[in-house]
């Protein structure tokens, strides 16, 4: 497990990489929440590596300030996280993710197969990886702002798994309905709604963590990745 550097279209940026015991392995780009590449994201990478994936989490906030590592435990950190999200350039972020995937596929430890899994902001970015990249599959956990991106859904040509929380405080009910309606006929998209759960229900230790829902979502994710990246 180590920090690596990736060369992107606008310069080099850091990423955390967790390498599985057996290589070559499929790559999984783990996409950060609004708190940066913090302990939560690093631990997720470590867990995916234990399951046989070359897991890489790139620093998407590097243009604003590199190496951001916040928690969800204080109001000041939440405010800083929202400020970073407001300054974040989504389009450039997608290019960084594509560069990360390309970098990973060129590593000796990678089979050439590669997908993404993103949480919160990362859930939005994984949706965009499905619409704008050649990733083999993508997983979105409680992505924000997806109702505004449905025009890109026609570009999805690889499997996309989406986890939505029915009581998501950052995705209003009307937005959820719009997302489900807009994607319900798409043959590459599978949506699971977790009734009674709030945003970030799978973030262990978080305010809205729900062990049962998280276990179910994570099992679905592992099964999905096994089907499409093996």
TrEMBL record:
<dbReference type="Pfam" id="PF01738">
    <property type="entry name" value="DLH"/>
</dbReference>
<keyword id="KW-0378">Hydrolase</keyword>
<dbReference type="GO" id="GO:0016787">
    <property type="term" value="F:hydrolase activity"/>
</dbReference>
<feature type="domain" description="Dienelactone hydrolase">
    <location>
        <begin position="13"/>
        <end position="228"/>
    </location>
</feature>
<dbReference type="InterPro" id="IPR002925">
    <property type="entry name" value="Dienelactn_hydro"/>
</dbReference>
<dbReference type="InterPro" id="IPR029058">
    <property type="entry name" value="AB_hydrolase_fold"/>
</dbReference>
<dbReference type="InterPro" id="IPR051049">
    <property type="entry name" value="Dienelactone_hydrolase-like"/>
</dbReference>
<protein>
    <submittedName>
        <fullName>Dienelactone hydrolase family protein</fullName>
    </submittedName>
</protein>
